[in-house]
Each structure stands twice: as C-alpha cells, then as structure tokens.
Amino acid sequence: xxxxxxxxxxxxxxxxxxxxxxxxxxxxxxxRPDNWRNGGKPAQQAFAAVARAIAGFEPVTVGVSQAQxxxxxxxxxxxxxxxxxxxxNDAWMRDVGPTFVTNGRELRAIDWTFNAWGGLDGGLYQPxxxxxxxxxxxxxxxxxxxxxxxxxxxxxGSIHVDGEGTLLTTEECLLNPNRNPHLxxxxxxxxxxxxxxxxxVIWLPEGLYNDETDGHVDNFCCFVGPTEVMLxxxxxxxxxxxxxxxxxxxxxxxxxxxxxxALTVHKxxxxxxxxxxxxxxxxxxxxxxxxPREPEVRLAGSYVNYLLVNGGVIMPSFDDxxxxxxxxxxxxxxxxxxxxxxxxREILLGGGNIHCITQQQPMP
Length: 364
Ligand code: KQY
Hints:
Mean pLDDT: 97
Number of helices: 10
Distance between the termini: 20 Å
CATH class: Alpha Beta
Shape: globular
Strand order of the largest sheet: 3-2-1-18
Structural class: alpha/beta
CATH superfamily: L-arginine/glycine Amidinotransferase, Chain A
Low-confidence stretches: none
CATH architecture: 5-stranded Propeller
Number of domains: 1
Helix content: 10-25%
Largest sheet: 4 strands, mixed
CATH topology: L-arginine/glycine Amidinotransferase, Chain A
Bound molecules: 6-aminohexanamide
Strand content: 15-25%
C-alpha cells in the first residue's frame, strides 16, 4: 500500500504513551548467527520466554523467516501468540517496526527510514533492506494507513513519549552525524512534532556507556507516567556511566514537560559491570558485515529496557545483585501492574533488551 502524503499531527494523530491500552505486541525471531551465539538457539529461548510473559497479558505477533517458521511455531506454541512469516535482517522490532499514532478513532503507522543504527558510518550490519521494509509490512498486515519518513532516519528505541506532548531522546543518537546529518536540532524537533504530535523535546546529552545504538534513550531513561521518569543510575564515580547519569539528571531536573510541569526522577540502579564470557563471544559467527564480540567490552545492561503491557511490566534480570532492588523499585513505581521478570542476559549479548525487541500496537 502506498504511504500517505500528509503529516500525522496535522491529520490529528499523536503517539500514545506506552501505558495507554494496547491491542498487541509485535516481535521478530532471532536467528542471524553473526549476532546471536550458537546459531541463535539460546536467544530463541530467551525471546520465547519474553513472548510467553507478554502473552499472559495480551496477544503477541512474532515475525519469522521462512527458514525458521516451523521451529518458531513449535517454540512459541501458545494460543495468545501468532507467528507470521516476515523477512528481516535481525530481530529488533522496536527499531524496525512502525510507531503507531492515533486520533482516538483510527490507528496509523509511521514507517521511519532505518539505516541499521548508522548506515555505513558505524552501523551495526549490512544490508538492512529487509529491516527497513518491516514497518510497512506490519502496517499492511494490520490494514493500517502508513506515513513514510523517506530520508529521515529514526529508530523507535531512540524516543520515549508521555502521550501528552513530551518526548525524551538523546543528543548522542538523534544528533549523531550517522543518522540525519543534513538536519539541525530545530529541524529534527519539527519533524518529531509533525509526526508524533509532541511540542516539547527533552534532550539528554548521552545514553548508557557502550550502547551500540549510539545511546538509545530506551536503555537509559523513560517515562513511568506523566511527569515521572526513570533514569539508569550509578553513584560510583569510577563507573563510566557516572557522568552520563549526572548530566541527564541535571537536564531532567532543569526541564518541564509540554504542559509546563516539573519532572520527578526515579533512579534505577545499573547492573554489573556485565561482560560476555570468552565462550559466549566464541559462539558468535565472525562476519565482515557485522561487529565482532569481545569479552573486554562492557555490555550496556539496563533494567530501564523494560516493556509495559496491559496490566503488566515485563522487565529483564541479569543474575546480578541489583536484580532484586530493581524489581522492588519497579513494583513500587507500578503498584497497579504485575511485574514479570524474564532473564535478559541472552538478549543483552545481542545488543539490547526487552524494550528493544518489542513494539506495542496501541488501541485506537
Ligand atoms: O535497540 C537495540 N538495542 C538494537 C541493538 C542492535 C544490536 C545489533 N547487534
């Protein structure tokens, strides 16, 4: 289906917050052996655990390659999980899937241009053509009209909204010359406004240390509700995240939202430092078109990389001493929701976590 030629906000559409009612969650099935160790088998187990956890709250659709179709159907057998054949280059639905917008009666999809987190200037793999088609295919399957931001690069993990006109992002990602070097900060803000119906953008300087997406906000800071944010946090000055967290806090404390309200910041501990073991790295195929995995490189583990579903929170654990305090804080912040903890290490080894591998389709 051809994309619309108008602009979402002008058509009366806005991006709802993640806590607003959802129809379903979209995911993709991991298989590429140069990103997921041991032919993707441990990652498939981890993704299946996430899909099953979500299915306890609402329907899930998982897109899978033709080659993996039968295997995925077998491993995802659950009445609330639909498996559909859908080609992709990897499995990051947050970033390659559509951003849904609503006018209260109808849902539409925004199909951002995708360049694998930086294209030929630091991108994570090539080619990425199948990934770039995922949003359009999802919109077609759902019979949802689609806007395409041809030439404007954005990944869903680089933004969080409160649904009331405020957007959180990082300069490290959205102002990175490997995304939209032809656009100024003001022009980017205007495009975000035109597409998502946001009148206030809060720019955090950086995301989490060593986040291979160039600092996606969804691994670092998110809205918990209107005027409330969660920020990944360390008090250890020796941690490379220390300056990043403190810089973000000072921006958040000095900001108001689109309605002029001050923000309350909840500090979520950062797990680790977490590293892949030599054995885990050894299980990843070597390839000229993706990045190598090294045990020396600290992984960007974060509890902020969680997903809200209807009545629930799906959050990662890392076999880390901070797991329990993190779960307790989550329960405190979401007293009306059931918090489900799913092992996140295997997803982290591939470069992200639960929020990165999921995309919500809201109710209109
Ligand atoms: O949103 C994400 N965290 C995606 C990361 C992509 C990693 C590819 N190796």
